[in-house]
Amino acid sequence: MPTGYRLGPDYKQFGNDSEFGGNGDLEQAKELLLSGVPAKYLDQRKKALDSLHFTGAGVRSLTQGDNRMVAVLQLAQFNQQAVSQEGELYGALIDDTDLFRRGPQVPDHPDARCALPMLDPGDQLDYLSCYSAEGDLLVQMRVFGVVPLDQNKVVDLFRQQLDRLARPGASV
């Protein structure tokens, strides 16, 4: 757990610190990976997911003491080629649609991508989503918070998580 954070609220039906894999709960892992995908892209995503033969997924939600933001970190384990392709698909989704604005860069992780939704004037909540491939893991972090969302804090949290995955067992 990063310094200054604690487990957050449950993320949908998945809890706030869960992992899924193996034969018994692989369907839950698929549900986790499909949660939040816009309906317009759901069929394409399901077909892609079925072809990837992933081995597991995990989710953890984090929040700080002031509860002004909630971060949901998701990990999905595939073979490295599939992870790379998924990362490229996410990048194309950001670049080729009007659903998102390009978000901030993640220091020391040039392949990580962050995106912001289009906001309407007067919106009270903000959102930032980041993706990256680390070895055989596809890492996604979605952050929801009170406007204005501190993007630097979010990017630093994502960087810490990616650094930890790149150096298993390292304390961050």
Which features would summarize this protein structure in a list?
172 residues; 8 strands; alpha+beta
Give an account of the 3D structure.
This protein is α+β, with helices and mostly antiparallel strands and 172 residues long. 33% of the residues lie in helices and 31% in strands. The protein has helices at residues 26-34, 39-52, 80-96, 151-166, and strands spanning 5-7, 17-21, 56-64, 69-77, 100-102, 113-117, 125-134, 137-146. Strands 1, 2, 3, 4, 5, 6, 7 and 8 form an eight-stranded antiparallel sheet that branches. A hairpin with a 4-residue loop joins strand 3 and strand 4. The longest helix is centred in the middle third of the chain and has 17 residues, at 80-96. The chain starts with a strand and ends in a 6-residue tail after the last helix. The mean pLDDT is 81.
SS summary, helix count: 4
Note the main sheet: 8 strands, antiparallel
- Rg over CA atoms, rounded to whole Å, is 15 Å
H/E series: EEHHEEHEEEEH
Strand content: 25-35%
Through-space gap between termini = 8 Å
Number of strands: 8
Residues in helices, as a percent range:
25-40%
* Global morphology: globular
**Mean residue pLDDT:** 81
> Low-confidence parts lasting 5 or more residues at pLDDT below 50?
none
Q: What structural category arises from helix and sheet content?
A: alpha+beta
Layout of secondary structure:
Layout: E1 5-7, E2 17-21, H1 26-34, H2 39-52, E3 56-64, E4 69-77, H3 80-96, E5 100-102, E6 113-117, E7 125-134, E8 137-146, H4 151-166
Antiparallel strand pairs: 1-3, 2-3, 3-4, 4-8, 5-6, 6-7, 7-8
